[in-house]
Amino acid sequence: MSVAIVTGGSSGIGSSTAVELARRGASVVLTYSSNEAGAKQTVAAVERHGGKAVALPLDVGRGDTFPAFRDQVAEVLRGWGRDSFDVLVNNAGFSSPALFPDTSEEQFDRLYRVLLKGPFFLTQTLLPLLADGGTVVNTTSSSTQIAEPGYSGYASMKGGLVVLTRYLAKELSVRGIRVNSVSPGPTRTRLGDDGFEKYPEVIPALAAKTALGRLGEPDDVAVAIAALAGADGRWITAQDIEVSGGFQL
């Protein structure tokens, strides 16, 4: 039995990833910040696929909580007859669009804490529990390559996460740990305060900019993450894989 930790597992890409990993035989520890109801729905979906899942609260923007979270994970692992886990998916995040002249220092700092500092130190904190030969997958963004007004702060942090991915792949390779990232394009998630639900009129324009002609779905990204995390990705490390359907191709 493999065990995966998926941050931001209460909805969107994180929820779909937890379910996809369970379909492939993993037990899952998923985290949530405010959406406990969504986390419970994800746990139920994992269990419907015959897997085990536990949802734990975690604010990825608060590094002071990480040691206590690691202790909670260790307790869950003991209950499953394990002392280590195999897959870490750093997925939790948020979007706060603002044009460059309008971006406040407070917005910038929050993006930094959640999107870059959080994955850095959460991975560091959990590293003693990550099994040799395990894998880390970071969720980045196609905004690091395709400049859309309003995302300079967000994309800067995701770009930093791409660089961190390569460095972790180098340093952790001595333990056989692979580290990659996936870079979604526009995907139907709750990111941006449920933007696609509130403003469905933007969807046709985004689909028109996508080579495959539609908006991405969380499952489209989840299968890529699961492939990188499993045996299919055994010879892939230090890569940022765009999963966008050819957005702005």
Q: How many helical stretches? A: 8
CATH secondary-structure class: Alpha Beta
Mean pLDDT across all residues, rounded? Answer: 95
CATH architecture: 3-Layer(aba) Sandwich
Beta strand %: 15-25%
Strand order of the largest sheet: 3-2-1-4-5-6-7
Gyration radius (Cα, Å) is 17 Å
| Ends apart, CA distance between termini | 40 Å
Unreliable residue runs: none
CATH topology name, in short, is: Rossmann fold
- Summarize the amount of helix as a percent range: 40-55%
Q: What is the oligomer described by this structure?
A: single chain
Largest sheet: 7 strands, parallel
| CATH superfamily (homologous) name | NAD(P)-binding Rossmann-like Domain
- What would you call the structural class? alpha/beta
Distinctive features:
NAD(P)-bd_dom_sf; seven-stranded parallel sheet; alpha/beta; oxidoreductase activity; oxidoreductase; NAD(P)-dependent dehydrogenase, short-chain alcohol dehydrogenase family; 8 helices; 7 strands; Rossmann fold; KR_dom; 43% helix; 249 residues
Layout: helices, strands, pairs:
Layout: E1 2-6, H1 12-23, E2 26-32, H2 36-48, E3 53-57, H3 66-79, E4 85-90, H4 105-126, E5 130-139, H5 152-172, E6 178-184, H6 191-198, H7 203-208, H8 218-229, E7 240-243
Characterize this entry briefly:
The chain is an alpha/beta fold. It has helices at about 10-25, 35-50, 65-80, 105-125, 150-170, 190-200, 205-210, 220-230, and strands spanning about 1-5, 25-30, 55, 85-90, 130-140, 180-185, 240-245. The chain has a 7-stranded parallel beta sheet, with helices on both faces.
